[in-house]
Amino acid sequence: MPHQQMLMLFGLLPVATNISTWWNFGSMLLACSTMQVMTGFFLAVHYTANIDLAFSSIVHITRDVPYGWMMQNLHAIGASMFFACIYIHIARGLYYGSYLNKETWLSGTTLLITLMATAFFGYVLPWGQMSFWAATVITNLLTAIPYLGTTMTTWLWGGFAINDPTLTRFFALHFILPFGIISLSSLHIMLLHEKGSSNPLGTNSDIDKIPFHPYHTYKDLLMLTLMIIILLITVSFFPDILNDPENFSKANPLVTPQHIKPEWYFLFAYGILRSIPNKLGGALALAMSIMILLTVPFTHTANLKSMTFRPLMQLMFWTLMATFLVITWTATKPVEPPFTTVSQMASLIYFTFFISNPILGWVENKITKNST
């Protein structure tokens, strides 16, 4: 085993002294991933991938299986906590220029896409009313792809409509993809420790380093403890706070819910999809809302790595954060004015952040040069 990996194994790998609490979300994501795998395996043992029995099997788990209600809620609410942590993790990477470690950033973005696919397949499994119709809307987007769309949709459905073969496929994919997530996570961590973590100042971390343990392990333990406390309080006292009331009814293909929407962590992409009237354009915009993260390392033109000393990019960053929340909010509203107009404007601002990244970098370089 290489010397660096040995140090990483024993927590002695040196890291920058000035990394803040925002760097603790990586270890929190690892803990979330472990919890999702463990609770998911427990649920898979009792789940039945059949459209006539799937909903009943979830009811059976929550009512009859010892501690089944806890496992089911930990898995469902844990998914929301997982995505909350990963969105904060990505935002930190954007703000502090962590994306300049290209291999780590690209592996992390690939990991995000895999996680979103896994979560989508899992959302369908309870076979509730909202799960069924959300799956119908999203999978129908594949038909917008010229020539291959209909064939791909038919294969994914296992027929000409969402039915029993669809549920079997989604259960299989939801069970298999976590193995890919574990592999990608391992690769992501290895690449991170090979290059080293960034820091708030965006300076060379080699100048001032300390061992990871015990200085930063205590920070990780504190944040993990807080996360577990929040999770257990939510599971114990507010287990249905994030559930859609429609999903407490068994899926009925003959009754369409008044407002079809996915889980909250997909709403920003769903809002961008709904903001474009054209089906193919909406599908492309939805895909680009995630895939555009892959372009960030290649569009960085600023001399400074972190946004700590880049006021123009700080303004754009916080505009992006506000825009993310606005799109998420409008996605829960009916497809009618003024929500459609607000969603379209917010979607435009969302993509403007990534387009303006190289332009503002050049502007800031010129301002810095003229001021020195």
Folded structure, characterized:
The protein is mainly α. The chain has two domains: 11-253, Cytochrome Bc1 Complex, Chain C; 261-371, Helix Hairpins, CATH 1.10.287.980. It is built from 14 helices and two strands; from the N terminus they run H-E-H-H-H-H-H-H-H-E-H-H-H-H-H-H. The protein has helices spanning 3-9, 25-46, 54-63, 68-95, 102-124, 129-140, 149-157, 164-195, 212-215, 217-237, 267-274, 279-291, 311-330, 339-371; strands spanning 14-16, 209-211. Strands 1-2 form a two-stranded antiparallel ribbon. It is globular, with a radius of gyration of 22 Å.
Task: Describe what is shown at a glance.
The chain has helices at 3-9, 25-46, 54-63, 68-95, 102-124, 129-140, 149-157, 164-195, 212-215, 217-237, 267-274, 279-291, 311-330, 339-371, and strands at 14-16, 209-211. The protein has 372 residues and is an all-alpha fold.
Tell me the major beta sheet: 2 strands, antiparallel
Distance between the terminal alpha carbons, to the nearest Å? 48 Å
CATH class descriptor of the largest domain: Mainly Alpha
Rg computed from alpha carbons, rounded to a whole number of angstroms: 22 Å
In terms of structural class, how would the helical and strand content be classed? mainly alpha
Q: What is the count of distinct domains?
A: 2
